[in-house]
Fold this protein.
Amino acid sequence: MTGSHDRIVTVSMVSDTLPNVRFWVDRTLRTGVDHMLVFLDDHRPDVQAWLEQHPMVSVVHTDAAYWNHDRPTPLPDRQMVNANLSLAALAKVPSAGWLFHIDVDEALSFDRETFLELDPRAARFPTLEAVAKRRWRGGEPKYFKKQPRPEDLYALAGLGAIARPDLDAYFRGHHLGKTGVRPSPDVRFRVHSVYEHPDTKIETIIPPDMHLLHYASWCLDDFVDRWRDFRPEDAAGRPFRSKNIGTAFYTLRNHPAMSQAQRDEAVGELFDRNISDDIPLLRDFGLLVDNPLRLDQPARPMPREDVALLETRLKELLHVDKTPYKSQLLQVGRRTDGSR
Amino acid sequence: MTEGRVVTVSTIRDTPANVGRFVERNLTSGVDHMIVFLDQQQPAVRKMLADNPDVSVVSTDKGWWRGEKPKAVEPRQIANANVANAILATLPSVEWVVHLDGDEAMSFDRADLAACDADVVRIPTLEAASQRTWRGGRPAYFKRLASTTQLRAMAAYGAIDEPTLDAYYRGHVAGKTAIRPHLSHRVGVHAAYDEAGAKIEPAQAGDAQLLHYESWCLEDFVDRWRDFEPRKAKRSNHRERRKLIGLAAYSIANHPDLDDKTRQRYLEQLYDDNVADDLRALEWFGLLVPSPVGEPAAPRRIEQPQLEEMRALLRAMREVGKDAFAQEAPAGSMAAALEQAASALEPGHAARVRSVVERHRSTVAGADA
């Protein structure tokens, strides 16, 4: 199939407000990403309308019909089906070069030109996590946290900066990064890696200086946004730490005996105690990098016929049986810590 | 006649300064002689100890282990302690052998031990209270073992993280034992066993105590853990909590991104948060005791012929496999190994050693009949 095969495409599942989605789309399309596939996880007509009119976004509303009335309950399962469907949809689009699965609180940090010269089949961008502070001037975190070495984790745990000397205590979110891959109907995503259906490893490079930026709870406002809709009764299946923070947040935010000012103060305290990073300590141990986000790589629109082809393909796949697009979980022995 | 000598045996790897303190603490406590097995090439320590007439030093290099060096340190300690036990069983003037670590010292009354006719005596632990520095370079206080009630009180007060001995004591709580050197006794780390492997119940002998100095001050804490790299941590049998603190100290002490001032600040913080004791709380809850270190007692030298024979046997043991001295070695193996070592001795000495072996075998045969 001839074609440029050089457009960087992302796929995401979204359930967020219009202002947040607009901010995220506008930013993503300045980081080197050329086109975005957005699967709406719930009914948001305003978000859908805005996305539908955007020339560099293709949107799918995943309603009950999409799921053939058998919607997977775990969020990662729905994400993977959408991402794998996207691989099939993009496989015959001539300009589609790469597909990355990212979340709304993630951004790719990379040099597009350098990346396109590398030409592997798959590439993993390791995580850099935004340093958390109540407020960052300028609306972006100034620093991100690097992957620590084991010795760093021991030191940080001994000094009380993290609860345990492991990556789950150091990072608020995942630490394995995300993998981008050349779209093909035989390829499948797992959350952090890719494989060839049914279960063949795909050789994956880790390009230097290219990262997945993870923003989760990078400031107090984002923390509040993230937990605003959490209900303790929906916590089953969440990681332990996440469950506890969510429950504490819900309790404080809805406390009947506290004024709004007191609730806000308590939530701020919760953030300080559980989320805020010790910046001087991280700096002393060489674990900070300046924010590497590049916003000087505007999207290169796909040819119109390619967008049309993509959206036709998406329509064809809208109501197919989704079973073939589910991801195989890695067998236990082959999993790295924290992976799915 | 030189009788009732108390000899310690240790397998150590440490700085000359720390080893010097270890030897001084014990040779002024009532201990008469120290056998020190060096666990690695330590030329400076070896020279310092070789110059001391009350210390016999052995380098446990590849030749000592005859190509079968145990990977973990504890089996090496036990084997060396039993080598010493077997050798001391041939010296009439030595009545007690105590297996000590390099950060331990005896505190006891010679008369109490001399009056005791048990084969094994219990020596419970007193742990040095830890402060950044102590005036005079010695801890003024020690911590006695705490009861459950005291642990709960300390935890509720916030002086320890949880009401457990593990959170209260940095080191072991098992104490040590003084053992009569004998071919049917096997020395363990904390206890003594007969040749069938059954623990020999220890008696009490006055106020004998084991003073445990681990991390008694900031400098000792840093010294101890500075080289505790993760590879060593995997092999060590330290408790998990202690391992993590050790790894944190190692990481900070060796971190390439820290300048000296920052490194020191973090080491102090690590120490203050995890090691330093709350003396006031210890006192309130009845756990603090003034240091029991009394007036120095000069060692009673082992007389020259016997001392030279002991050292000759230590040298001869280089040609003997150390499996015979492992905790799980079969009955009779120490006697056989001693007999093998005797073949390298001068005839008179060899005959005396063989006679000890024969007496032991007759006793065993008589007991089995």
User: Anything to note?
Assistant: Residues 347-368 of chain B form the longest helix (22 residues). Chain B has two domains: 5-147+166-215+292-368, 218-274.
